[in-house]
Each structure stands twice: as structure tokens, then as C-alpha cells.
Design goal:
Aldehyde_DH_NAD(P); binds NADPH dihydro-nicotinamide-adenine-dinucleotide phosphate; 2 domains; Aldehyde Dehydrogenase, Chain A, domain 1; six-stranded mixed sheet; alpha/beta; Aldehyde dehydrogenase; Aldehyde Dehydrogenase, Chain A, domain 2; oxidoreductase; Ald_DH_N; Ald_DH_C; 21 strands; seven-stranded mixed sheet
Length: 497
């Protein structure tokens, strides 16, 4: 039976997932849908492949992962076109996303051995006859569940960390972007043809749920906070650990000594790139009174130049359009003013840039993730008020500060995992910085050293090198030895400083 097709809404026909462009309805491709059994079989295959991959060692894995990186770069325009076809975003956005992704594919394998390799730790006085050793061992099989908004860089973050560490990966791309996901897996297979070290399983949310219960050793989830809770509940059944990269409501603070034009430019780009469908996108701007009017004027002027169908692509997931409309309606109903766009900006599958001022703090436009090309700008008395309002959200993913003298101090006080000073979203492009949030934005980290350790278990080993002078771990210790141990502990740790 043929289901009715709505552009951008994936349909399943005869066990095949058909992905279409949200703006044109053009077919982007087809992939087979995995059953629960298929998912378990993929994890089983991955376990064997993982043992082979681990045996390649850090150098062998580095060689393959850097070859994969190079292959992706050689075919960057193709991936940009495919991403555009499947999500509707401009091709250049797909290309720029790939640029960010390859940074992580380069950094992780080059640094895995240094961060995770075996090392000796300093001997402690009370156990002087033992040497201490630390190494990080991969989990085995990592399940990666990805979203649709950045179908390249969001999965490549955990995939690069997991593979560099020595795990195999079973990847469930979003049902909205399975073709880009499959492209990544297929290109990896060109440089690693021997074993299914990276596999994809496709389908709707139930396939993600099956992956949580499949026997995978850890799940790296990127998506909404609501789904993250379901993932955690499913993983809790078998104590499967998780990394959660969830939604955000990021704020940009503009202080009195900021370069206002640069702040306006960054607010517009940070808020409206990818049509605002960015987890670390700027959704709220807090500007101190002396520069507020100028900032609003410049943001409106710059955002007003953006055209839907050009710089502003369609809303990839059609049902998100209702949420964006509801947020704008709520902001206006509660007393906010649209200084650009507004209700009429919603022209499915597009939403034109919308800038709202005087929006009360209890509006959904301020409280919930909008995920569209909208910005609120709120006037504040000073940086302290800006920080208080910026932090008044259950989310805590990223953020940005524009200013000079106090900008870094303000950045430190933002309750979030990442902040860019005098730019937006920059932290995602640095392979050596961790990426992740606090609160409803999740926990755990991808990227950087912390992102490598996320996919390995620390293993502690002690090796006894000589007879114990102060034996504490034996029934054979004598009362005199206990006295000596206490004396030593008093000397070492009993003093006040
Ligand atoms: P969803 O939470 O809807 O989906 C994310 C992934 O989870 C998809 O692959 C989805 O499959 C899958 N899934 C759905 N239900 C289940 C389930 N019960 N068990 C396991 N997996 C399931 O998020 P979106 O795809 O809509 O992505 C947008 C969200 O992602 C936004 O909130 C955004 O902020 C956030 N995000 C966070 C990032 C971060 O790094 N912190 C980065 C990018 C986005 P299917 O698509 O088939 O339903």
C-alpha cells in the first residue's frame, strides 16, 4: 500500500523508509527499516568487528579514521548537496557543517593514545611497595542516536570519539535524515571494508528504543530533552550508561562596552543559521540599556535582509512549524511586539526571520526551545540582571557574551556547558574543547579529551613490587604494625595543614 506523501515527512512503505525534501517533496533516497531483531544482530556483528578494530591499535585506527576524514573532505560538495536535498538547508550550510565535523574526525584519532593510553601513576607513601597503573579501555559497542538538524556534525562527534577509543558503533540516524547517515556509514566502509565497525540501523523512534535495549554497552544520544528521558528509562533497565546531548535555549548577553554591530551580526547568524534549528542557536538576547536601541535596530536591519528559500531554508520537520507559530503567538498575546516578522512570517515550509521585543519572561518564546528563526531581545539594567535572566531556564547548553572588560567573567557565570565570547557557536568547531550541557540540556561530553574518555572505562591496576613494610591488607598484620600505620597516618594526614 502506498502512503500519502507530505514533503519532508518520512514514510515507510513495504519495510523501506523513504526520505523526502521538506521544501520540494523530491525523494532523497530509501533505506531498509530495521526490526528489533535486526538491531540486535547489528550489535552482535559490531561486537566482533569491535574486537578486530581494537586490535588495530591506536595507530591503525588513526590511519583509517584520517583516511575517512580525507575521503569526506574530497567529497564535501557531494555531502553538501545530499544534506541540502534531504533537509532543505542551503548546500553551503551542509558544507560548513562538514567542515566542523572533520575537525573532530581529525582531533580524536590524533589524540586518543595520549589521552587514553596506559600510564603509570605516582606511588603513594602508604602503599610505596605498589606501582599504580591507569588505562582506558573501550566499552565495546556504542549506540549512537542522532537528530536531523545537523545530520553530519552531531553524530560525527560521538562517532569519532567512540571509534578513536576502539569501540564499534551502531548508528541510528533520525528518520528525517537517514540518507545522510547512510552516506557516512558507506564512506567509512570504503576505508574499513574488512569489518562492520560502523553500521547504521534505520527507522522511527522504536528503532532508537530497540538500540537502547540491544545489548550495546553505552548509548550516546543527541536529540530533544523529552526523548532523552525515554532513552534513559530504556537504558536504566539494563544499567546501560548514557551521554545525553539535548535541547537548549541559549542566550547572548551584550554588555555596555560591546562592539554592537558585531553583536548584532552574531545574534542574527547565531539565531537564524539553519533556520534557527540549532541546539546551540541563540534564542534570547539580553542587552544592557545604553546599547539596547542601537542593537535592536541593527539586528532588525540585518535579519530583514535574509530571504526564505535562500539563506533561510525550510523547517525540516514539518510539525515544528506549529511550535514556532505557537511561541510567536504566545509572545504577542502576552504583550510582546514583533519588530520584524511575527505571525505572518510563518509560511510553511518556511518561517521568515522574526525579532520580538518586550516579551514577558513567562512566554513560551522565552521558556521553551523554539527551534526556528526567531530572536527575543530583552533590555536589562546591567550584566548582573542579564546573567540572572539568562540562567533562569531549565536548559544550559551554550551561550555567548559580547563585551570587553567583563565578558569572560560574565561567560563564567552563565549556567551552561559552553560559551563563546565575541562570537557565537565557535566552541563546536574546536576539536580539543568538550561539548555538552547542564540541566535539561543533558550531561556527559563529546569532543575533546572528555569526549574521548566518555567512550572508555578507566581501568586501575596496582602491581606489588616488594614486601610490604606497613602491611594493611592482611589478617597477618600485627598490633605493632597497626600502631606504626596509625603513627604514619598521623604524620602524613593528621596535621592541620
Ligand atoms: P528527537 O528527540 O525527536 O529525536 C532524536 C533521535 O532519537 C532520533 O533519531 C529519533 O528517531 C530518536 N528517537 C525517538 N524516539 C526514541 C525513543 N523512544 N528511544 C530512542 N530513540 C528515539 O530530536 P530531533 O531529531 O527532533 O532533534 C532536535 C532536538 O535535538 C532539539 O531539541 C535539539 O536542541 C536537540 N539537539 C541537541 C544537540 C546537542 O548537541 N545538545 C545537537 C542537535 C540537536 P526518529 O527521528 O526516527 O524519531
Amino acid at each position: 500500500m502506498t502512503a500519502t506523501r507530505v514533503p519532508g515527512v518520512p514514510v515507510i512503505e513495504d519495510g523501506v523508509l523513504i526520505s523526502t525534501n521538506p521544501a520540494t517533496g523530491e525523494e532523497a533516497g530509501r533505506v531498509p527499516v530495521a526490526s528489533e531483531k535486526d538491531v540486535a544482530a547489528a550489535v552482535e556483528r559490531a561486537r566482533e568487528a569491535g574486537a578486530w578494530w581494537l586490535a588495530l591499535g591506536y595507530e591503525g585506527r588513526k590511519d583509517r579514521l584520517l583516511r575517512w576524514r580525507s575521503l569526506i573532505v574530497q567529497r564535501i560538495e557531494e555531502l553538501g548537496r545530499l544534506t541540502s536535498l534531504e533537509t532543505g538547508k542551503p548546500e553551503t550550510d551542509g558544507i560548513m557543517e562538514t567542515v566542523a565535523a572533520v575537525e573532530h574526525l581529525d582531533w580524536a584519532p590524533r589524540n586518543a593514545k595520549r589521552v587514553l593510553g596506559p600510564r603509570r601513576v605516582r606511588t603513594r607513601i602508604l602503599l610505596a611497595e605498589h606501582s599504580g597503573h591507569l588505562e582506558y579501555q573501550p566499552y565495546g559497542v556504542i549506540g549512537v542516536i542522532g537528530p536531523w538538524n545537523y545530520p553530519i556534525v552531531t553524530p560525527i562527534g560521538p562517532i569519532s570519539g567512540a571509534l578513536a577509543t576502539g569501540n564499534a558503533v551502531v548508528f541510528k540516524p533520525s528518520e528525517y535524515t537517514p540518507i545522510v547517515g547512510q552516506w557516512l556509514v558507506d564512506t567509512f566502509a570504503e576505508v574499513v571494508p574488512e569489518q562492520p565497525v560502523l553500521q547504521a540501523v534505520h527507522g522511527l523512534g522504536d528503532v532508537g528504543a530497540a538500540l537502547c535495549r540491544s545489548g550495546a554497552d553505552k548509548i550516546a544520544f543527541t536529540g530533544s530533552t523529552a526523548t532523552a528521558k525515554k532513552v534513559m528509562a530504556a537504558c536504566a533497565e539494563n544499567l546501560v550508561p548514557v551521554v545525553i546531548e539535548a535541547g537548549g535555549k541559549d542566550a547572548l548577553i551584550v554588555d555596555a562596552d560591546a562592539d554592537v554591530s558585531a553583536a548584532a551580526e552574531a545574534a542574527v547568524w547565531g539565531g537564524m543559521t539553519n533556520a534557527g534549528q540549532t541546539c546551540i542557536g541563540i534564542e534570547r538576547v539580553y542587552a544592557v540599556a545604553p546599547i539596547y536601541d542601537r542593537l535592536v535596530k541593527e539586528i532588525v536591519a540585518k535579519a530583514g535582509k535574509l530571504r526564505t528559500g535562500e539563506e533561510i531554508g525550510p523547517i525540516t520537520m514539518p510539525r515544528q512549524i506549529d511550535i514556532i507559530r505557537e511561541h510567536i503567538d504566545d509572545a504577542l498575546a502576552k504583550g510582546g511586539t514583533a519588530v520584524l516578522g511575527g505571525v505572518d512570517a510563518v509560511q510553511p515550509p518556511y518561517v521568515a526571520p522574526t525579532v520580538l521585543v518586550d516579551v514577558p519572561a513567562d512566554s513560551t518564546e522565552i521558556r521553551d526551545e523554539t527551534f526556528g528563526p526567531t530572536l527575543t531581545i530583552t533590555k536589562v539594567a546591567d550584566a548582573d540582571e542579564a546573567i540572572r535572566l539568562a540562567n533562569d531556564t531549565p536548559y544550559g547548553l551554550g551561550g555567548a557574551v559580547f563585551g570587553k572588560r567583563n565578558a569572560v567573567r560574565i561567560a563564567r557565570r552563565l549556567r551552561s556547558g559552553m560559551v563563546s565570547v565575541n562570537s557565537t557557536l565557535t566552541f563546536v568547531g574546536m576539536g580539543n574543547l568538550p561539548f555538552g550541557g547542564v540541566g535539561d540540556s543533558g550531561f556527559g561530553r563529546i569532543h575533546g579529551e572528555d569526549g574521548l574518555r566518555e567512550f572508555a572505562r578507566p581501568k586501575a591496576i596496582t602491581v606489588r613490587r616488594a614486601r610490604s613494610l606497613l602491611p594493611s591488607t592482611t589478617f597477618e598484620r600485627t598490633p605493632a604494625q597497626v600502631k606504626q600505620i596509625v603513627k604514619a597516618v598521623r604524620m602524613l594526614y593528621g596535621r592541620r595543614s
